[in-house]
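Ticket #471: bound-state structure for nicotinamide-adenine-dinucleotide.
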Amino acid sequence: MMNYSELYIDGKWQPSSGSRRIEVLSASTEEVIGSIPEGTTEDVNRAADAARRAFDGWSQTPREERAAWLDKIAAALKERTEQIARTIAMEVGSPISIATSIQAGLPVMVTSSYAQLLRDAKLEHEIGNSLVVREPVGVAGAITPWNYPLHQIMAKVAPALAAGCTVVLKPSEVAPLNAMLLAEACIAIGLPPGVLNIVTGFGPVVGEAIATHPQVDLISFTGSVRAGKRVAALAAESIKKVTLELGGKSACVILEDAPFEKAIPNGARNAMLNSGQTCSAWTRMLVPRARQQDAIDLAAKAIGGLTLGDPLDAATKLGPLVSSTQRERVEGYIAKGKSEGARLVAGGSRPGAFSKGYYVQPTIFADVKSPMTIAQEEIFGPVLSILPYDSEDEAVRIANDTVYGLAGGVWSGDPERAMRVARRMRTGQVDVNGGKYNPLAPFGGYKQSGIGREMGMYGLEEYLQVKSIAR
Ligand code: NAD
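RESOLUTION: The complex was predicted; output attached.
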């Protein structure tokens, strides 16, 4: 049982000013696996004060020193790989294989990448008689979701610390235990007090206290559009800089000259990663109308190979959804898909094999039309919508026909044609012919998928202010 009775503030564990606690459930057994304090506004005040006090010193440290701290954090997380992976496998339901490689592995990679970027970055340049210098924004407030919890935390904390900012973090209340492992890692390496502070709790209390706090200069939020809008509106009151990483309804465009045997399974598996609880998942697959049946057959075969099971079992390819609320939401969308006339061609219900756990079968709808709810709204579950199209122009129009613009894919036998279509997609990132994930490339959204970018140099810039010194 992972019971944490205190919060990580000012370099040490401190009790919350409140006495309430939040229980954390296993996604597969539905049993309590731990608990955390339900933080209060007063806890945020203490954390923000600690971050403010630490800022002067931390922002003035030589770059090499901050880079060395990032290396130490990365090493401390790496040492805890197994514990982090098991924890996230339980609290999120991610299969242990991806919990190890992505959920635990990516934060290490991202943190190390910022150590290196900081060493290499050019942070000053001249424009005429002015020297332009980049300086840390100040105290950064970070609010994160549950689906790739530690990755989303380190995608904010690592560039913030690299830039010289100090941080007040509110992790998701649904999957907060991994953040407590990060606190243990920071205590173990002796990270200076106040540089990172973690207040667990609910969004409307702890999150809103961070978004409105006068000592917080910047908010970096990842989560739903609904909460993102609220955070941005609150932050506007005190003109805080805001970065938002929100939802998606990304399209994978399969052109008629694409290698279907490779493209369709790749696209279908992408939609199912982490049981579809991936903001950048390609949840819409756009296929030439004449070849829709080939696409259905190949996609159904590909998801048929995804073994549902206990997240802690190495053979499991697909785990449960994170919570009963999430499962209800997903089931609501499946019902909506059927009632709006989409054709259910695979899955669609709870698998019979499990008496516990928030499992939903991997599901495919075909003959989906763009105005349908399941083609417009983020489902955040293992549900793929296949939309037939009649021309390349129509495919591009459908791909761009949502309020989101986070990710996308294009497949064609002609790489130049694929690039042409990729350029027409109104989205923050596109993979052409299965392009490999690049952790140094900027990640973020167009339209309601967000504002600003994370990862690599673009991610670092979010935490920097620009000052012109005329001479
Ligand atoms: P959520 O918006 O419910 O919660 C995200 C975080 O915001 C949590 O820490 C929550 O406590 C906090 N929060 C909620 N209400 C708040 C409020 N009023 N003020 C301040 N903070 C508040 O999202 P979720 O269910 O945890 O995550 C799923 C969503 O996140 C999906 O929409 C998904 O697409 C999105 N997401 C986006 C990205 C991205 O990088 N674009 C990555 C992962 C997830």
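RESOLUTION NOTES: Residues 220 and 243 are 5 Å apart (CA to CA).
TICKET STATUS: resolved
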